[in-house]
Amino acid sequence: MRQLRHESYRVVAVAGRTALEWVEKADLVKWESVATIDDAPRTTFYVANPPDAPLFIAWSCNVQSQQGARRHIPRLGEMLREHAGKELGGSTVTDDATFQRGTHFESRSELIKALQHWFENSDDDTIGDLKFGRAPWLSFTTSVGLADLNADTRRAAIERMLAYSRRTDAPWHVIENNRGKVNKIIFDKSDTHEGWYAYLREPLAAPQEVS
Fold first, then answer.
1. Among 3, 15, 12, CA closest to 43
2. Which residues lie below 8 Å from residue 94, measured CB to CB, with a gap of 6+?
């Protein structure tokens, strides 16, 4: 704890049941349960605020290795901003219209719903921070594997996708990218694809529909 104070840390995040139990057994904190995600895997969010020490936050699931835990990433991000916003230099008011890098969605429908919310409540021109260039920003599960939506995906492209999705729930398509790999995901074959940058992580052998 002395080292944490010396280094001027403001927030310490502890991920996973084993780690948070070890921190408490080491007499560093006394956890307080502040929220629960009931969907499997059931996850509890904790905070601890020792005197003259950083704010500690923790969640009981293991996002990296526990089956189904990645679906909790958006909610964990909300709780992190709610309980540690001031210490992180922001506000305790959550900003659901801003996507955190690495946010994952378990389905295309979840992705579309989140992009609709972003479009209606944000003035940003891209879904991610352009200082990261074309880096993957959001990920989503498809019928043929994991896919990413890049940081430079544009508002105008999101608007076209949302308009198309309101008209039909037809499958999207995986086509060849400019280098001949079959990994580019598009929502409408008649669209220009300008500003829409979605890609499968693992290319396919041939173009096909994807849901």
1. 15
2. 78, 81, 82, 85
Report d(CA 78, CA 210) in Å as an integer. 30
Burial letters 153-172, b for 16+ CB under 10 A, else e? bbbebbebbbebbeeeeeeb
Looking at residue 71, the DSSP 8-state letter turns out to be G
Q: Are 116 and 173 in contact (CB under 8 A)?
A: no
CA distances to 28, 47, 162, 198, 200 from 14, in Å: 12, 10, 37, 32, 31
Tally Cβ neighbours within 10 Å of residue 129: 15
Question: For the range 62-68, what are the long-range contacts, defined as Cβ-Cβ under 8 Å and sequence gap of 24 or more?
Answer: 62/15, 62/16, 62/17, 63/15, 66/41, 67/41, 68/39, 68/40, 68/41
The structure tokens listed for 160 are 């076209």
Is the pTM here over 0.85, yes or no?
Answer: no
Which pair of structure tokens corresponds to residue 26? 């080491």
User: What is the bridge-based pairing of β-strands 198-204 and 145-150?
Assistant: antiparallel
- Whether the Cβ atoms of residue 191 and residue 141 lie closer than 8 Å to each other: no
154 Cβ neighbours under 8 A, 6+ residues apart: 125, 126, 194, 195, 196
Q: Tokens at residue 155, please?
A: 């508002």
Report the phi/psi class of residue 97: left, alpha or beta, with left for phi > 0 and alpha for psi in -120 to 50: alpha
Residue-wise pLDDT for 39-96, tens only, equals 899 999 999 988 878 889 999 999 878 998 888 888 888 788 777 766 655 433 334 5
The answer to whether the bond into 51 is cis (omega within 30° of 0) is no
